[in-house]
Design goal:
homodimer, 432 residues, seven-stranded mixed sheet, six-stranded parallel sheet
């Protein structure tokens, strides 16, 4: 059900995107996670806190929770939200089927929220019956959705050895200290400093102890857990160089970027379903060739949709983009069947699924009017199920050169429909 | 020819986007600018250096140059590029009509490139006949395209008073120092430090003197001009809090974000052109009402396209999105005329211009086939001129309730076409 190698869209550099990582063993410790999500999102400029902003229709925090919950060696996920967002968070957990998730009320500051999260693992806490206390606790920001198993594994293993560990990144800008009158005092040597990022991991008892001992000033004005571990538990955390995609959604354009990255990942695999009739199969073959220039993985299924026993199994894989090729414009019965099958896989709960109904024909002979109406109607209906249905008419030309050109144009249109996943265009009949 | 208040797309917070800033007087000093653009873009992961990556088809650096050159009190713009990119940069300057721009060969490091840039203002330099030496020199990164006149004015004025000044931003992450074995040594108090950003400005003689005096180590391993000014010219630069959109395009997703921000800005103004026939005017009025829910500024022009004396003047304003409403499907003559007018304004040199040809009609009576072919053909042709032509058929319904619904759908489609500016969809005929 997940994009290959990435719970929420792999955000690495160009060549790394979407490739499945190496299989990883579980760390030999019990692990749970706390996600502080009490922020107000002031820097974003909008009224919705950034963790609840929709990306492809789903709140950002759901991507982060999903990225953690798909790692089976993390037992519990505690999400700490401000009191006014408890109900919102509950409905997110319900709607997207998040498992092993406990919602806890946050404090007024980030540190107070994390502290509340830790308390849920301790007997006699005021929030819930205590969760099983883990040896290692991971702390991760709700607004860093692109966290991979690899870095989580590394910080957990380092925390087991050193007591605490955290992901770091090189500084993008020089850091400077200012005088009291707003002038440069000194600049730091970029090579000697790092940006502290998330995830971080701690021996549970050590970080819990640090929170119990630290001052109100720490709880109110501090932000850095590694600092508390150093000051109150005398632990020099191990610093782990993390991938660039650990970046934190902070500003409006970070949401744009997250949107593009997620679309990029879930568009890397396309499934072409053709009728068993010869024309359609041949066209499917041609389209397959062309699509390979645009996306990484193209799967072909030549199948009679009326005998769909194994189609559901195939779709249970990791495919959010389907192309269905037919050689007549009129019948929507098959598309309806496909929608039913898709619904059973519940793929569209997490991501909008693109379904492109491709027709072959001769433009001069085509009569679009009634088809447009039927397509629009069906598209409107399935959009409610998060399935985005588009129509594409491919002009069938015997002339081989022109056919190549038409197929290039078809592949380009399909690629854009898949990448953009734009709900406004559903029900439109494009022509290649 | 520019989007309101923003040379390249205002990237501020939600409420600030696209609003024209207050008119500003020129600073009472002579000012020139140096843009170091020699970077290799390793962090981006691609082979093209990030400053040359296309955004809406135009290299990123062109947006930055444009942002500086539209400020009339900056006399010269020196762009410093690595030797292998001199020709690329020359062709960018030619193609996008950049004025007051001098291209200089960079050194192996950032500081050496900036130094080369400064030398162009000094007699006897090896690059060119010397440019007029300014009192104040602005240094700005080629990969920060969203720089506004306001912050440039502030750093220039502060540099005049203090000798040097630079834009700063709050730190997004905590900064930490590591021990030699990769563990946490200490973390910095986020409140006491700032990220040093660009633009920066200096008294020319002071920064030039600093570069003449500094060590080879500084030139090879340093990055911070403010640091050189402090060390070699004993100037404590004034630090100016800059807007959030000064951010530097560093990673792949920063390009996604820049793309979205620029599209967002140039889509804030829409011009509706209607035939003077009553049906079209009325539909234009309805569409105007609906579009106001989606974009900030909607201009109406009811005009006979055959008498287009004043249309060109109107289009010479700041509009990259045009909707042309007609009450028959067949005639493309008027669209061709509009394209000619658009070409004369040369708006499409800097940004792709969206032109949506809207037809009114009754779906049952329509025959699309020949129209689709003509539309596709014309669209293909004008795409070469960076004009993106789309067709939209609005079903005319007498029933008032249904008409409202249709117009809502039309406005939604138009909004998406304008915002996405997707070249793949040109020549398509959408139906609302």
């Amino acid at each position: 059900m997940e994009p290959p190698g990435a719970g929420v869209g792999k955000a690495g550099d160009f060549d790394a995107a979407g490739e499945p990582g190496p299989p990883r063993r579980s760390p030999p410790v019990s692990v749970a996670a706390v996600l502080p999500a009490g922020g107000s999102g002031e820097r974003l400029g909008g009224s919705t806190p950034k963790q609840f902003c929709p990306v492809l229709g789903r709140p950002l925090i759901s991507y982060t929770v999903r990225a953690i919950e798909r790692i089976n060696w993390i037992s519990d996920i505690v999400v700490v939200v401000s009191p006014e967002n408890i109900e919102t968070m509950k409905s997110i957990v319900r709607k997207y089927g998040h498992e092993r998730t406990t919602i806890v009320e946050g404090g007024l500051t980030r540190h107070r929220s994390i502290f509340n999260g830790l308390k849920t693992f301790v007997k006699g806490n005021t929030f819930c019956s205590p969760l099983q206390k883990p040896e290692i606790i991971v702390i991760h920001d709700a607004v860093r959705p692109f966290v991979e198993e690899d870095i989580l594994f590394k910080v957990v293993m380092a925390a087991k050895e050193h007591g605490a560990a955290g992901a770091i990144r090189p500084l993008v800008s020089t850091v400077i200290a200012s005088t009291t009158d707003g002038c440069l005092d000194h600049s730091l040597d970029r090579a000697k400093y790092r940006a502290s990022e998330m995830p971080q991991a701690f021996l549970f008892d050590k970080i819990h102890q640090a929170y119990l001992q630290c001052s109100d000033y720490d709880l109110d004005y501090g932000t850095e857990c590694l600092h508390l571990a150093l000051n109150y538990s005398k632990i020099n955390a191990k610093l782990i160089e993390g991938p660039s995609d650990l970046w934190k959604v902070t500003y409006k354009w970070d949401l744009f970027a997250a949107d593009c990255l997620i679309k990029d990942t879930i568009s890397q695999e396309v499934c072409i379903i053709t009728d068993i009739k010869e024309d359609a199969v041949q066209m499917g073959f041609l389209l397959h060739e062309k699509m390979r220039n645009h996306v990484k993985h193209v799967k072909d299924i030549a199948v009679s949709l009326h005998k769909n026993d194994n189609l559901q199994n195939i779709l249970l894989g990791q495919c959010y983009s389907l192309i269905c090729i037919k050689n007549k414009l009129s019948s929507f019965e098959e598309i309806s069947q496909l929608v039913d099958i898709l619904e059973n896989t519940s793929a569209s709960v997490l991501y909008p699924v693109v379904l492109i109904s491709v027709y072959l024909g001769i433009l001069e002979n085509a009569s679009f009017n009634s088809e447009i109406e039927s397509l629009t109607k069906l598209a409107k209906e399935v959009k409610k199920k998060n399935i985005l249905l588009y129509g594409l008419f491919i002009q069938y030309k015997k002339d081989n050169l022109k056919l190549q050109e038409t197929m290039d144009s078809a592949a380009a249109l399909i690629t854009v429909l898949i990448r953009e996943r734009n709900p406004a265009f559903v029900g439109q009949l494009l022509v290649a």
